[in-house]
Amino acid sequence: MHLSAILQVKGSTVFTIQPTASLADAAKTMVEDKCGSLVVCEGEQVVGIVTERDILRGCASQNESLDLIHVAKYMTREVIVGAPNDRISDIMGLMTNERIRHLPVLDNGKLAGIISIGDVVKAQHDQLSVENLYLKQYIQS
Q1: Predicted confidence (pLDDT) per residue in 71-129, tens digit
Q2: Alpha carbons 121 and 49: distance in angstroms, whole number
Q3: Confidence class of residue 6 from pLDDT cuts 50, 70 and 90?
Q4: Which residues contact 6 (CB under 8 A, 6 or more apart)?
Q5: Per-residue pLDDT tens digits for 29-78
Q6: By C-alpha distance, which of 132, 134, 98, 117 is closest to 37?
Q7: CA-CA distances (angstroms) from residue 65 to 25, 26, 60, 62, 121?
Q8: What is the pLDDT of residue 63?
């Protein structure tokens, strides 16, 4: 099973923000869109990712308002990405080892979607449930 299967179910909607936006804008967008991260883009170019944890770091380390802090200051610049043809089992290991919860998916350099560790676990669970069902049917026949 590949990431493309997750994106077929989940869809390709990705919430983005510009690096010059404020952390307050990022927090507001995450709350409104019910998401835990935003892909930071300049035009169609992915330049980073900002997460809830990044916003918390901004709150904890600054004495200034989140309205005055740019996303670029706290975003992760070296974004780990996946591709639609990446295997889910490989991505699960990558996300666990890198300790990331959100993974942008790029298709030929263009943003094709984003997956969370929860999406990966659900896909893996669904696949194992189907295999389990087939094995039980095989044993009973």
Answers
A1: 999 999 999 999 999 999 999 999 999 999 999 999 999 999 999 999 999 988 887 77
A2: 21
A3: very high
A4: 88, 113, 115, 119, 120, 123
A5: 999 999 999 999 999 899 999 999 999 988 887 678 889 999 999 999 99
A6: 117
A7: 12, 13, 11, 8, 37
A8: 78
Q: In sequence order, what are the beta bridge partners of 110?
A: 107
Closest of 119, 129, 126, 128 to residue 11, by C-alpha: 119
Q: Record the tokens describing residue 9, joined without a space.
A: 């179910």
* Whether 39 contacts 49, CB under 8 Å: yes
Q: Which residue has the tokens 């984003």?
A: 114
Q: Across the strands, what pairs with 17?
A: 40
Q: Which domains does the chain have, with CATH numbers?
A: 3-140 (3.10.580.10)
Please tell me the predicted confidence (pLDDT) of residue 126.
81
Q: Is 113 left (phi over 0), alpha (psi -120 to 50) or beta?
A: left
Alpha helices by DSSP H, listed for the chain, are 3-10, 23-33, 52-61, 71-74, 88-98, 117-140
